[in-house]
Write a structure and sequence with these properties.
The chain has 3 domains: about 110 residues, no CATH class; about 110 residues, no CATH class; about 150 residues. About 5% of the residues lie in helices and about 45% in strands. The longest helix has 17 residues. Strands 26, 27, 28, 29 and 30 form a 5-stranded antiparallel β-sheet that branches. It has a 4-stranded antiparallel β-sheet with strand order 3-33-32-31. It is mainly β.
């Protein structure tokens, strides 16, 4: 990348495609962008792992103003669209971003050494002895099956669960729900190995409750252990009550994690979907309606929905080798690179359990995107209901070109480009 290039000056490319139509979206130099490990922050830019230095996290801004909204520095830069955010202890394994109270975003990344680093400038926090596989603004999941509830704006963990039977874990996240009868609870969803599981636990951390002097003294003896829940008691009884055991953490650099109070049997993993031949690879949360999706080693995208305490499989989409996906406000968008097609699955309403996916083929829309050279559907750091895609400005016939340029476009932009291209071809 040219650090002296002003993004407002452009790069010599017109951005015109198909009969003079200018493509929408932000275009930038993608020579250092690792498309396998990135997240788009709406109105800010793309946070990604650097190809040149896999320990580094960088930000490609979506505008030329250079306004810093990811909290990596207090200064602004107008000479380059890309800037370094931070360098992790180990190789970056996942990146994310979360909205800060008062405005702006904080970026963070997990690495192969079990650390999580943020753009706030605070020292890296070690959450596990194994690699971090997933992190968002509230939850961190590690390969050995450890799930931690944390605050991204502070960088400190609040509580933890250990799910050894989901190792190697892919991801875990949760959401606080409020019920008039049961009060506030955290509903967790965890994906790893051959299982998908969910649980509910009190949203009030044990350390936040009022204790007597005797209980406070007794709790000090429990700070070096955590309650581990076996997720799969049986592959056939999805409502089985599951037992618990204790796992101790070692290492002086993990004092803050090991000091977290154990759950004391208050969490119940009451549902598990198991498919032994399958191994999960990615987890895509919807952020609304209890929807989420997974990808696996059988080249499938599986759409799920949480209905009460049940996990329901709503659709299995086959032929998804190296597929990426994300949710809009009303549909699931899947990119199938093997056939260069975008498919959208509308989330229609049904009478049994609220929104579901219709079994009719009319709920599926396929879009040929071969001429756009779509790289992937991007994960997003906000629940605004938009789907973003990463596309190449130059043909894929030059994968080794150092002048590779990417463009971030919304699904609506891509549909408009396809329509314009189709109209141009008909005129010819």
């Amino acid at each position: 990348m040219d650090p002296g290039r002003d993004p407002a000056e452009g790069d010599g490319r017109t951005g015109m495609e198909d009969g003079g139509r200018e493509r929408a979206g932000t275009s930038f130099d993608g020579a250092d962008v690792d498309a396998e490990c990135c997240v788009v922050v709406p109105d800010v830019g793309l946070v990604y792992r650097s190809l040149a230095n896999p320990r580094a996290v960088r930000l490609e801004r979506s505008s030329s103003s250079g306004e810093d909204r990811c909290a990596e520095t207090t200064t602004t830069t107008t000479t380059s669209a890309a800037s370094a955010l931070f360098v992790c202890v180990g190789r970056v394994t996942c990146v994310g971003a979360a909205r800060r109270i008062g405005g702006g975003y904080v970026a963070f990344a997990g690495d192969s050494m079990g650390y999580v680093t943020t753009s706030l400038g605070s020292p890296p926090k070690r959450f596990s002895m194994s690699p971090v596989r997933y992190c968002d603004g509230e939850y961190v999941a590690t390969e050995d099956g450890c799930v931690l509830h944390w605050d991204a704006t502070v960088g400190a963990p609040k509580r933890r669960w250990t799910l050894r039977r989901l190792a190697p874990m892919v991801a875990a996240t949760g959401k606080v729900t409020v019920d008039a009868k049961t009060g506030s609870t955290i509903r967790l969803v965890a994906v790893g190995g051959a299982a998908v599981a969910c649980s509910s636990t009190s949203a009030v951390a044990p350390g936040d409750r009022k204790k007597s002097a005797a209980n406070q003294a007794a709790s000090m003896l429990k700070k070096l252990s955590s309650t581990a829940f076996g997720v799969v008691k049986t592959a056939f009884d999805q409502n089985a009550r599951l037992g618990a055991d204790v796992v101790a953490y070692e290492g002086e650099d993990m004092d803050e994690v090991s000091a977290l109070e154990r759950e004391n049997g208050e969490s119940r993993w009451n549902c598990a979907f198991v498919d032994a031949p399958r191994r999960y690879r990615a987890f895509i949360p919807a952020g609304h309606g209890g929807w989420f999706a997974t990808t696996d080693n059988l080249h499938r995208v599986i759409l799920y929905r949480l209905v009460g305490d049940k996990i329901r499989v709503k659709r299995i989409i086959k032929g998804c080798r190296d597929a990426t996906a994300n949710f809009s406000a009303s549909s699931l968008c899947v990119h199938k690179p093997s056939i260069r097609t975008l498919e959208t699955y509308e989330l229609l309403a049904s009478h049994d359990d609220g929104p579901s996916v219709s079994a009719s083929t009319s709920s599926v829309t396929a879009i040929d995107v071969s001429h756009l050279d779509v790289v992937r559907v991007l994960p997003t750091a906000d629940e605004e209901g938009k789907v973003y895609l990463l596309t190449r400005d130059e043909p894929a016939t030059k994968p080794s070109s150092s002048s590779c340029r990417y463009r971030i476009q919304t699904l609506e932009d891509v549909v408009a480009d396809v329509s314009a291209s189709t109209a141009t071809q008909k005129k010819r």
